[in-house]
Each structure stands twice: as C-alpha cells, then as structure tokens.
Amino acid sequence: MSPAARRRRTVPLALTAIAALSFATACSNTGGGSKPSTSSPAAPSSVSITESTLGAAQITMRNFAFSPATLTVKAGEKVTVVNEDGATHTVTASQGGAFDTGSIAGGKSGTFTAPSKAGTYAFVCTFHPNMKGTLTVR
Ligand SMILES: [Cu+2]
Questions:
Q1: What percent of the chain has pLDDT over 90?
Q2: Exposure of 32 in the CB half-sphere (CA atoms within 13 A)
Q3: What is the largest CA-CA distance in the chain?
Q4: Would residue 19 be called left, alpha or beta, if left means φ above 0 and alpha means ψ between -120 and 50 degrees?
C-alpha cells in the first residue's frame, strides 16, 4: 500500500519539476536575448546540412531496372543501392571504373561513392547489360 502511494506522489512531483524547467527555459529564451552563449541560429542549419549529405542519394533495382535511371549527386557523395529483385545486380560505371558496387544479392543493399570529378557517367549492371542508368556528378 505505502509504496504505491509513494509512487503516486512521485509522478506529480516529477511533472512539476519538468514544467518548472521548461517554464524557466521559455523565460530565458524570451527575456534573456543578450545571452552570448545562445547558438540556436547556427545549430539547426548545420544539422540540416548533415541530413541532406547523408543518405539522400539512392538507387533502387526493381524488375531488372534502375530507379531512378538518371540520378544527380554531389561529387564524392555516397549513394545507397537497394536491390529489391531476387537476382543479383551491380551498379558499375560503363567506362573507366569510376565506381562499382560489386555484386549485390537479391534483397540486399550496397553503396558506392560518386566520382569526385563532375560529369555524366553511364552505368550498367554487369550481369544484365540491358539495365542502364546515368549518374550526373555536379
Ligand atoms: Cu542485374
């Protein structure tokens, strides 16, 4: 009986503490505009840059085709390749070995790094040369 009563009393106390903390934060944000340590304008922008750099570029293999067949990425960007087919596929630059995922088994995924040099790079699946795509590096 008494532990339950204690627990019941603890919850409102914690909530009150949280409410007091958030109230204090709101107060300092609203009132204390002269705080030099406030770096909130810089923080969100650096976060969004990180997010757009990570994992934005993706190629899906489905029904023996690349989707999208034409993809534009940044130089040196990491591209994720997802194989939704049962067959093994690759993403392999048609010329110069600019990039190559190697074999990606059905249901698996892989990655490759886009070339550091801007340009247009055709790619194929080495097992199914009729699977064609184009990677544009800008
Ligand atoms: Cu293939």
A1: 58
A2: 10
A3: 76
A4: alpha
Q: How far apart are CA 21 and CA 28, in angstroms?
A: 11
Residue range 52-137, CATH number: 2.60.40.420
User: Which position has the token pair 């190559």?
Assistant: 100
- What is the β-pairing status of strands 132-137 and 70-73? parallel
**What does the pLDDT look like over 21-77, one tens digit per residue?**
444 444 444 444 444 554 445 444 444 333 334 447 999 999 999 999 999 999 999
Instruction: Give me ligand 1 centre to Cα 119, in Å.
Output: 24
CA 104–ligand 1 middle distance (angstroms):
9
Ligand 1 centre to CA of 55 (Å) is 22
- Token representation of residue 136: 């544009």
78-83 and 119-124 strand pairing: unpaired
